[in-house]
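Entry under discussion copied across for reference:
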Amino acid sequence: MHTGQMLLVLGALVIFSMLALSMNSSILTSTETSIETESIRTATDVAQSMTSEITSKEFDLAVTNGTLDDIMDLTAPYSLGPAWNESYPNYNDVDDFDDFSKTVTTPRLGDFTINVEVKYVPRNNPDQVVYYRTKMKRIKVVVNGPSLENPVTVYSWKCY
C-alpha cells in the first residue's frame, strides 16, 4: 500500500470508530430513558394503588359507625394517624394513613418507597393545608425509586 492509501484507511478507521462510539452512546441513552420511563410508570401505578386503598376507607373514625353530628367529633388535626390499637393493613379510616410509609418490591426495578401524608383542607382551597377540622382531607402519596430522578407525587381528596 502506498502512503496515500494508508492515510485513507486510517481516516476511514477513525471515522468508523467515532460512528461506533456515537451509536453506543445513543443506545445507552435510549436504554436509560426507557428504564426511567418504566420507573415513572411503575411508581405512578404504585401511587394510584395506594391512593385507591386509602380512599376506600371511611372519612374519619367519627363516621365509621354512623353520621357526623358535630365537626368537633372529627379527629383533631394534630392527632391524625392510626390510633394506638390500629395497625396496617387494618386501618379503618383515611387519616390512619398520615405519616404512613411502606416499601413495594418489584422484580425488574427494585424497591419503591411510599410515603403518605393526610391533612385537613378547606373545600374552597383544597391545596391549602389547615390545622383545624374540615369535611375534606387531602391525601398526598409520594413514591421514590432507584431509577427515578424525581419522586412521583399523586394527590387525592376525600370529602364527607
